[in-house]
Amino acid sequence: MGGVVIVYFSRLGTPMLAHKKVTLEWVAKAVAQLKQYEFAGSCHDLRQHSGDVFFVPDDTLISDEAAWLGIRSSNNLFGRIVSHPFVKTKAITHQLVDNRADCLTGWSPLFRKKCVMPYCPAIPYSADDVGQGIDAQGRWRSGVLESSWRSGGASTAELAALTAFVQDPGLQFVTARAVKQYGGGHEAPPGATVHFRGNDPQDGPIIRYTLVTRALRRAA
Predict the structure, then answer these.
(1) In a domain, 193, yes or no
(2) Residue 191, domain extent
(3) For residue range 100-126, what is the model confidence (pLDDT) as tens digits?
């Protein structure tokens, strides 16, 4: 094993629901398997780990906290680092009322124009939140809507697909689904990896699972 993977609970993160904690741990274990690292559980005291540590945080990290953890690149983090707390929210996709309006330190008036507006006319969009289309200048654009800078609802499907590619390098195309169903009476289909099945103290009865639904190999 070349290092360890740990679940890290950010100082600015909000309390997690029980099913989200269990799923986050599964994400960390899957990352450890892909990297051929040891999964070391959750950590609050970094002094107990030395060498190469890969973090799977519960929330997007702010730059000063990432620096305190010793994270200097994406090679040590499942997620992204932002400069200010508001940058990890959807506030960055909105524009100011006018050029004289007050704004937070670090606000970029060009972000929405450069990164959001080009995808507004991008039609159609898929059920996987990927928008594609022609922008106002006639250029083809592709963009991921609701992209997350941390472990999120689609992370288990992404990791299941990556694992399939690693296990079978001959694959060319993989489709995976991350499913969350509320209420009782739901069952996972055959072949699914169940992350949580039970009664969450806040969300009630819930089942969460991931299923690889299609895998195509390269033509010989």
Answers:
(1) yes
(2) 155-217
(3) 888 777 787 776 666 655 444 444 444
